[in-house]
Design a protein that fits this description.
Keywords: Amino-acid biosynthesis, Aminotransferase, Branched-chain amino acid biosynthesis, Pyridoxal phosphate, Transferase. Belongs to the class-IV pyridoxal-phosphate-dependent aminotransferase family. The chain is built from eight helices and 17 strands. With about 300 residues, the protein is of the alpha+beta class. A hairpin with a 2-residue loop joins strand 11 and strand 12. The structure holds ligand PPE. Ligand PPE binds next to helix 6.
Length: about 300
């Protein structure tokens, strides 16, 4: 990976190589960490902007609350620390990873009084699913792994432990020659991908699963607003696997993946087998918003400049 100079670690900027923890860190053994994935965009002469930093900062706090972690920072402090980290690294555009984790202290499942620590790292990160994915679309499979039951792990928490389910699905998909997996929930309806929410387009109507057991994606909620403002009808309703097979268009969305068209699923070509017109339209409008070219959504952006 491409590194940067500093990582924010519990209030201090430390050199990248020195941001270390003990091997008996509780979260490393039991997965009790929560994180965020955030993107900053280069807005040209206007400087840079972090996309929906307020919402991402709040989701980190919410995730910690769901896991019963004693989070020592407020959403405002995470917001400010993120901007501080970007500026210290002179990073105009890239990916930001805040992580709050249960640290070193006692071993055993009970996190007890172990310290709760927070880091914020950032680095340049291009297209998540490969350089051609955003334009040409990807091939996906339905995972043989079921997405977590809403009372097994807490899907509204962006918790490290939840990602073991995603890792199983991702390894399987990649080993079988696909770019990504989509997972069904315990009832057999479509939930989400290993790191993205899913949308389909049928007869001009946009549809996405409700949030029963999926992460409340910030890209997802932004796209729902954006699409409705553009005049599209957007439904949040149960989505079956075969509805995707016969959709005109399908796409994934997430901070890392942005808006990635799906061109094939389980060996069925979706629509015309390339990025469809509605997907392309939303992609274009989304990037305009993120790059500060649409003043209507200015409140979604946290502007900053680097010296
Ligand atoms: N579902 C899952 C399971 C998920 O991990 C993400 C983000 C989303 C939906 C979309 O959420 P949002 O980013 O708020 O729109 N996945 C992050 C982690 C990716 C990684 O490999 O790490 C991300 O996109 O940053």
């Amino acid at each position: 990976m491409e590194t940067t100079e500093f990582i924010w670690f519990d209030g201090k900027l430390v050199p990248w190589a020195d941001a270390k923890v003990h091997v008996l860190t509780h979260a490393l053994h039991y997965g009790d960490a929560v994180f965020e994935g955030i993107r900053a965009y280069d807005c040209g002469a206007a400087g840079s902007s972090v996309f929906r930093l307020k919402e991402h900062s709040q989701r980190l706090i919410n995730s910690a609350k769901i896991l019963g972690m004693n989070m020592p920072y407020t959403a405002e402090q995470i917001f400010d620390a993120t901007i501080e980290t970007l500026r210290a690294n002179k990073l105009k555009a890239g990916y930001i990873r805040p992580l709050t984790f249960v640290g070193y202290g006692e071993m055993g499942v009970n996190p007890g009084h172990n310290p709760v620590q927070t880091i914020i790292a950032c680095w340049p990160w291009g297209a998540y699913l490969g350089p051609e994915a955003l334009e040409k679309g990807i091939r996906i499979r339905t995972s043989s792994f079921t997405r977590i039951h809403p009372n097994t792990l807490m899907s509204k928490a962006k918790a490290a432990g939840n990602y073991v389910n995603s890792i199983l699905a991702k390894i399987e998909a990649v080993a079988d020659g696909y770019d990504e997996a989509v997972m069904l929930d315990p009832a057999g309806v479509v939930s989400e991908a290993t790191g993205e929410n899913i949308f389909i387009v049928t007869n001009g109507t946009i549809k996405t699963p409700q949030l029963t057991n999926t992460l409340g994606g910030i890209t997802r909620s932004s796209l729902i607003v954006l699409a409705r403002d553009l005049g599209y009808t957007v439904e949040e309703a149960p989505l079956s696997r075969d509805e995707i097979y016969i959709a005109d268009e399908a796409f994934f969305c997430g901070t890392a993946a942005e808006i990635t068209p799906i061109r094939e699923m389980d060996h069925r070509v979706i629509g015309a087998g390339c990025a469809g017109p509605v997907t392309k339209h939303l992609q274009q409008e989304f990037f305009k918003v993120a790059r500060g070219e649409n003043p209507k959504y200015k409140e979604w952006l946290a502007p900053y400049t680097v010296d």
